[in-house]
Amino acid sequence: MSVQSVDRALDVLEALADHGGEAGLSEIAAATGLPYGTIHRLLRTLLTRGYVRQESDRRYALGGGLVRLGGVAERMVAVWAQPYLTRLVELSGETANLAVLEGDFVVYVAQVSSPRRLRMFAEVGRRVLPHSTAVGKVLVADRSRAEALALLERTGMPRKTANTITEPAAMLAELDLVRTRGYALDLGEEELGVHCLAVPVHDGGRVVAAMSVSGPAERIDALDRDELAEGMRQLAAAFGTELR
Amino acid sequence: MSVQSVDRALDVLEALADHGGEAGLSEIAAATGLPYGTIHRLLRTLLTRGYVRQESDRRYALGGGLVRLGGVAERMVAVWAQPYLTRLVELSGETANLAVLEGDFVVYVAQVSSPRRLRMFAEVGRRVLPHSTAVGKVLVADRSRAEALALLERTGMPRKTANTITEPAAMLAELDLVRTRGYALDLGEEELGVHCLAVPVHDGGRVVAAMSVSGPAERIDALDRDELAEGMRQLAAAFGTELR
DNA sequence: ACTGATTTTCCGCATAATGGAAAGCGAGGG
DNA sequence: CCCTCGCTTTCCATTATGCGGAAAATCAGT
């Protein structure tokens, strides 16, 4: 039914990604449960195609070829999201966004603007750090505590406003809250006066994107958060199912 | 030596990317020369893993899973580029950048700053449109005339300064020049007073990234362009070889 | 409802991938 | 300097696995 070697090659790539993009043969073996010989052979094929690279210490890393494919795929996702974002705007009256995690940045890949006079707009393509945005929190909350901490250390959690969370410990607590509550908030942490609410988009397994609404603090705060979150969860679930 | 089915699966993914991320079975067959049954089986495996998606009209498209892998790979590329960019700064005295094409945007993925007092900096993560930057021109010049035109139409080529090229026809001519000359210039087309020179980075086959130097117009113009371009070509070639 | 183009399924055959085990390599310690 | 240990790479007989031609099914257009 499914082509075994292709399936396994994908397992190898995903194992590499899970290890931060770089791993030794034995680490991959431990992660995938495949025999050494098999993994090595798969890596060699990916190697000659430029999708994997071997470093001087003989460890393996994800290669540049994936950047191209990822870029094209991203544009596709943006197109598919459009109708769901439109419905989210109808639901909330505020600007709706779709964002993904790319490296250590959050990237807004699609947006539908609110019809109101005062509104957020033109964020598509913008890159921001995860710690000061609702979408960022949702995306990072999917990672393990250790991965999240490593990412926060790399980015340094710079203060954007008086409300920005700049302490790793506080952020880990916030991420726990996001996980249990199922949605994340940004209360003027990226920009004063702008509040956001974001939910994760699952494609079956992991979180692949985050969907959010953002607008002036007063209007966002006037909405019933739990009710809005519930509606967004449904939209995100429908979108996630379509992606799969 | 190489795992046949994995190789072919990669052919299929690349064929999809070449067709703008979306194609029918027969188009893929034409592009790869593989029999229908084989392609269909490969697509089904990629489908169940979320790396390919089937649309309602039964055509196939690149799936969301690739966005994740691409993001991690991008971070790797940035790390590997660092030493080459450092050498480029030594060579030119100006800030050196590495950029890739992601969807319709150019993204700066790595940078090493010039030691001078007046310098460009903090561009990593920035997304700009291709038509007004040297790196953008280099990346788009690798695409076919038709693809380039489609991209330029989607982005609309907005004017950033008085020097910005806003006519598709003029840009196509400029891209021809870039191809024959081997490097691209940006003479204050993105920001007045800022000039750039960029060269392509090949990883054997296609252009995977662009390397550039940017700085104040007077200093960039004072450099010997052909000599600088030659030095940059060598660095880009070395980096490209390392990627492969 | 019919036709043509495109996609999907089927199945016997042979090839292509498998994986255990042995050889090679390199870093670190005695 | 040589030995050891952990990890990576190569090898090869075996058979499961993927192959691909051709038929069946589906869809769009007339």
UniProtKB/TrEMBL annotation, chains A, B:
InterPro entries: GAF-like_dom_sf, HTH_MetabolicPath_Reg, Tscrpt_reg_IclR_C, Tscrpt_reg_IclR_N, WH-like_DNA-bd_sf, WH_DNA-bd_sf. SMART domains: HTH_ICLR. Residues 65-244 form the IclR-ED domain. Residues 3-64 form the HTH iclR-type domain. It holds the Pfam family HTH_IclR. SUPFAM superfamilies: GAF domain-like, Winged helix' DNA-binding domain. This is Allantoin degradation transcriptional regulator AllR. It comes from Nonomuraea longicatena.
